[in-house]
Structures are given as C-alpha cells and as structure tokens.
Amino acid sequence: MKNKILTFLYASRHKLQIILLFSVLAVLGHGYVLYRYFKDGILFTGPNDGMEQMVPIQMYLYEHWTHGSFFYATDLGLGGDMMMDFAYYFSTNLLFILNVMFIYIASFILHFNTDHMLFWVQNAIVISIVKSFLIMFSTYLLFKHYGLNRIASIVSAFLFAVSPIYFRFTVYWPFFSDVFILLPLLILSIERFLTRKKIGMFIIIVTLTFINNFYFAYYQLLIGLLYFMYRMIFKYKDDIINRFQQFKVFTIASILGLGSSLFIFFQAAIGFIGNNRATYRGEIPLLSEFGKHDNIFYDNYLVVVLFVAIQALLTFNLYKHYYYRLFSIFTIIFIIASFIPFVDSIFNGFSAPQKRWHYLLTFFSSGLIAFYVYYFKSIPVKQYIATCMPSFIIILMSYLITKDYVIWIWMVPVLCLIGLAVLTINSKGKVLIILYAISIMFLSFLVSKEHSKNQIYHEDHERRANKFYIQASTFDSALQRKHINDIKKNIDSGERISWRVLNQDNTPMYQQFQGMSLYSSIFDGALNDYLYNKAKVNLQDESLSKYSNMQGRSNLYSLWSTKYFMKKSYQQELPANFKLINDDGKYQIYKNEQMLPTVKVTDQYYDPNQIRNPLDLEHAMIKGVVTTQNHKDYAKMTHSKNLLKDTSITTHHSNYNKDILTVPSNGDGLTIKLPPHIAKQYQDLYLMMYVDRKPPQSNFTIQINQYANNRLFKDSKYRMNQDNLLYRVPVSNDGKINIGLTNGAYKLKLQGLYGENYQTLKQADKRKEHSFKEKNGIIDIKLNKHKAGTTVVNIPFRKGLTAYVDGKKTNVQRVNHVMVGIDVDKQSKHIKIKYKPPYFNVMLIISIISILLSILFTRFINKN
C-alpha cells in the first residue's frame, strides 16, 4: 500500500508541484489585501454593493438553506422566491453552494458565527484566494493545451488571476469573477473538440455556465461565438474536424448543454424577464470621453493592460504563429472596443452601457504576453528595442498628462533591460527567461496592488469598509440587535418590523427579521408595478434596485401588517397612527395602533378600473379586495376629493408659467396653501405632481416641507423613469406645502392633492381572527368563524403558489395587484399554501433527458 502511494505521488509530482505553486501564488497575489486587513482592519468587501447587497444576501441564503427553505419566503423584502430573485447573485452560484456546504459541515466542529457580517467578510477573502487558485489552474490547462511550456503557461495564469479587474469584480460583485474560471475552460473545451474531437467537456462547461449565472452565460455565449467563428474561418494546422462538422456538432452540443441546465437556468431566466425593470432611455455616445481614468494602459479605474502587451502587439514577426496572431487580433479588437460605449451596451443585453466585459481584454492580453514570453528568444534585438520605445512614450505621456505617480512606473525600464539581457546574453539555460517571466508577474502584482490602493481602497472604502464600522451603529450594533430581538418576542408570524440602519435596505437580512425593505437588482415585476405605478411609492433616494419603508404612509404599513416602527432618535420620518413605546436616547420604537391582520376574509370587491389614485387604492384594499375577477359584484367606490382647486398657489423666488417652473436658487419653488377649515380635517395630504428637469442634466432634489427627495439625472443607469410623483405630507400648522427644488428649469404640473384623515383605516376590522404560520416556505392558515368570500393574505403572489382549502386543491388568485387571494366557503376551516417554481418538474425532466442524450452523443462522437 505504501509503495502504491509513493508510486502515485511520484507519477503525479508535476501536477502536485503546480497545485502547490498556484496555492502559494494565490496567497501572494492577495498579499496587499491580507496586509490591509490584518494591519488596518480594512475589508475586502466594498462599502456599497458589497456590504449592502452581496454579504447580506449570502447570509440570508445560508440561513434559509440550512433550515430547509429554498424557494418562497415571506421575509425576502415583502416576499419572493429566493431562487429566482437571487439567481443573478448567489442562489445558483456553484462556488457559493460549495462554500455553504463546507461552512455548514465545518461549523459543527469550528462553531462559525454565521449570524454576523464579520464572518462573511472574512469568508470573502478565503473564497477569493480559492477562486484565484481555480482561475490559475484552469488558465494553465488551456495554455498547456496550446503547446506553451510551463513558464509561459504560469505567466498567463498569474496575470489573469491577479489582475486589477479581478480584484475590482471580487470586492464589489464577487459572483462576477466566477467567469474568470469558466472562460478558459470554455475555450479549452472548444479547442479539445477541434484538435482532438472530444465534445464532452464542452457540454459540461456549457451546462455549468448556464447554471452558475444566467447573466454571464450571455457573456460566455458572445465570446464563445466570436472565438468559434474565428477558429472556423481561420483553420489551425492541427484541426481534424471540417467546418460543417464543427458547426453541426457544436450546435447540437450547445443545445444539449442548455437543456441539461434548464432545471436551474429556466427559473433564473424567467425571474430576470419578469423583473419589469425600467428601460434605459439615455443616449449612448459614439466614443468614450477619454477622461483622466480612461487610459487602459496606466491608471484606469477598471482594467490595466500591461505595457508588455504593447510590445507584444508590435512584434509583428511573431504573427506567423497561429495562436499568437489569434490573441493579438482579439486584444486589438477589445482595446478598440473599450472606447466604444455601444459595445458595453451590447454585452449588457442592449441596455445601459456597463463595463463588465473587460475581463475579456485582460484574458486575451494576458494570453498574448504568455505567447510573447514563449517565443521571446526568437525576437531580433533591434525589433525588441524598437517595441520598447512606444511603451516608454505611452507610459511617460500618461504620467505627464495625469500627474499621477504609480509605483510600478519604475518597472518599465527595468523590465525592458531584463528583456534586453535575455536576448543579448548567450545562455542556453532557462535562468534568464525565468527571471524575465518572474519580473512580468511582479509587474502584474504591483499594477494590481497600486490599482487596489487607488481605485478600490480609496477614502470612502477605508472609512466604511472596516471591522469597526461593520460592527458599529452605522451598520450592525449589539444594541440594535437587542432591540430587534426584544420586538420579535412580541410579534406573530406574518407581522413586520419597519427598521433599517441608515440607508441599509437589506438590514432585515443580516439582523434576521421580517422587514419592509430590499436592495436587489432583481425582484418580481408585479411587485415593482404595484409599488411604483399603482401605489406610487416614491423612494427618498431614487433607485431601480430598492424599495423601503413605504414613504411613511400609514395605510401601507397597516396593509402589510407592520406592527413596529424603529428609527434612530434624530430621524424625523414617522407614519401616522404609531405610538412611542420605547426611547433609550439612541433609538425610538413605535407600535402601530391601527395594524391590519395578515389574513382576512372579505366579500367586498372593488374594480381596479374604478380606482383613480393611490389613496383610493389604499382605501379599497382596507375595506375589501381589489380584483379583476369579472364575476364578482363590485362595491361602489368612494373617491377621494381632489383639493387642489381649494388651494392658493404662489411662487417663492421662482417663475411659474404654463407648467414651466424656473428656479434661480436652490430651495426656491412653489407654495401651496390650504384654507384652515380644510387643513384641520386631515392628518396627512397626498400631493401628486409631474416633474421633469430640463437640460442640462444633473441630479436634483425636490424638497416637500421637511422631506428631501433625491432624483437622478435623466441618463442615469439607475433612474426609474418615474416622473409622476406622490408625496405624503403631514398637515402643518399653517396648512402650507413648500415645494423647493435644485436650481434649474422644470416642467412641473400639479396633478392632485388628497386629504387623509384615516377614518377608513380606523373603522376597519383589525381583529386577528385567523392564524398564520410559515415554515420552510409552507404557509398554514386556520380560519375561525367567517363569511363566504375571498381570503386575502398580504404576501406577494407568485406563479407556482398552490392552495389547499380543507385538503382540496384551490386556485390562487392575484388580488390587490400583488397579494394572494383564495376563494373560500363559509364552512372552510384550513388553508395550506405551497410553492414550487413554475414548470419546475417539466424543466427537471428535460434536464435529465438532455443529460442522458449528452452522454450518448459524446460516446457517439468519440467512436466516429
């Protein structure tokens, strides 16, 4: 047995050496990251998307998965399908799934504190090192397949895995950098078929790509097509498959790979398609602005192409080598494309331009440098010196123009001199070329270190992304958790808490309570439509990817069974009908005195076509249910009175003519005044108006009394295109509504002013007559005495929900635009609601069949 082990180790020594080498290089590549964490406590997680989105979502998924919940959950914001809604992030991410499995098993021994953010930001560093190792290994395999030696292949692996764009992706959006592993494997699988007639790996990689992340599967599709088209048009001498066979086999294999992934990919895709995200309407310029940080050869905020790549591109006599020419052409194409915003839009699905494809430029330029190292000794000395000059000029001019010193600038002459020594010193050994390769790798490390220092670990990152901040009251303190835990003892299943730390909309995820807010790029389109088009919730800070706290509108808090409202003592926003029950000087906790139950049974039906404004909608939802079921007998709708005609409207240091408002100074605008006898009838006013800022574009603020609403400029990628706005305005003592705006010109049209005295809410039945329990996505409702009608449950409707009334399968309806409705008889006692993603069984069967066909197809190709 011992001899067998020794024999195996000896036979595998080269592979083990590479594994050990890449393990060491992965750690060394993170040297600056580790240094800043252990010395200064600076996190390898961004202060915005990283800490506010990525880490809370990871915590949330871990908590639910380890308790047996995988799909529908009522605490995902207002509720949703965590698999579909988080497929863009981590719910289908293979590396994260493996990470969860390891943490869960290891926690029985090591007792990981997975309930706190600090564990997950520490975990991010470990996973990044593991990911770097996997990137190096997959890249190394590809370049060894190309025929490069170990030295050049190691160079390609290190340059790609320890590149500036890798660290930027991983700090802010860690799932982005998974594609660094899959890209080399995809190209390797294409090459294996063309040169060895092996198709199995291609099917596996296509399957894993579509499962891992539907968004980057699109990127992989584009680059896979481009690479395959090049290889099909320009054949390599070792290709053994003719063009027709290439096209036929790759088409079939791609379909089989897609089919094998459908049990996951289909859910992710329909979740994205159903997102109902606002369409980008901004203009896309022909070329980039060529600003200070657009120089991709010096100090670009996203990607830095090493100056060695310039030398490689100018070494024309090496273009005679097929793969050298291939990598040169792709590098040139992507360098040019990096200055064309429309290319950014193409890769982002013809939507807002996003520079997320630049890892392709890094990959091909890194590969080009590897080929350059491999053929380096064949370069004539004069040609080498000639190619050094443009590199010197580009780097020197970059420094002189920007006046920004980068620490690696001294490596330009040093590396050129080392290269010259390799070419001029007559040596048959590998020492000099190894020294040159190591110098290039060291240059790459310095470039990434400097990029991280300047573009990632900037002042805001150091201020907020640190061990102190993440455990303080600015993010997640022990006192906050104590208050939340005390509140949770006094709420029942289905009841909510309105609380978020500052603007952290995912606070409910990491403090583990059922809240009112969510920060995610993907959430259900029907919920989006309800919040922003029907209810016209107007976020204080405009964003496509968030919803939170219902704008202080008491009716909405009650309709969603929000029992407690918690805020910091200095924060002003407070809904009506909430009573202060606790004030410790730092935090105030209020209890809803007009809370509506999670479950009600009603026979009052309202026609959505008869509803004129959001206040009418709130009243209809409180009194009964809004439904499109035409067989219902609709109740008569009592419409809220538009009070605008009873007001006086005056300008304040501004000019208002034909709906055009010109504001010379910040804060100027209009004043609306209600007569005292009308104002005293109401607690809140709902002001509706259309606002469109005229050029020039800029962010602006609409100040309604004490409420500051921050709006984005017209071409912003994150603008909601929401110009018909609603403001909840507590009635002031003088009955005035002051509308102040940032200086500029606006098209502003006052649409309506509606008063709310909350009599409808106060008169509503608030008894909790029916019990509501949720466990692992299964909802159990017990009905007490009630009349025949519709059971309304204030959780979001999703296709895939199934109800069983007293054991009998019953249709689940979408009511109130977004909630769940189930018809019941007077005698109905029990409702069970289950959820399964739409067409899940069908897609699972298709995937199983596709996997079996893939095995048969692979064997057939191998035999023939």
TrEMBL record:
PANTHER family: INTEGRAL MEMBRANE PROTEIN, INTEGRAL MEMBRANE PROTEIN-RELATED. This is Membrane protein. The chain crosses the membrane at residues 16-35, 86-112, 118-143, 150-167, 202-230, 250-275, 296-316, 322-347, 359-375, 381-400, 407-425, 431-448, 839-861. The lineage of its organism: Bacteria, Bacillati, Bacillota, Bacilli, Bacillales. Keywords: Membrane, Transmembrane, Transmembrane helix. The keyword Phosphoprotein does not apply. It comes from Mammaliicoccus stepanovicii. InterPro entries: Uncharacterised_YfhO (IPR018580).
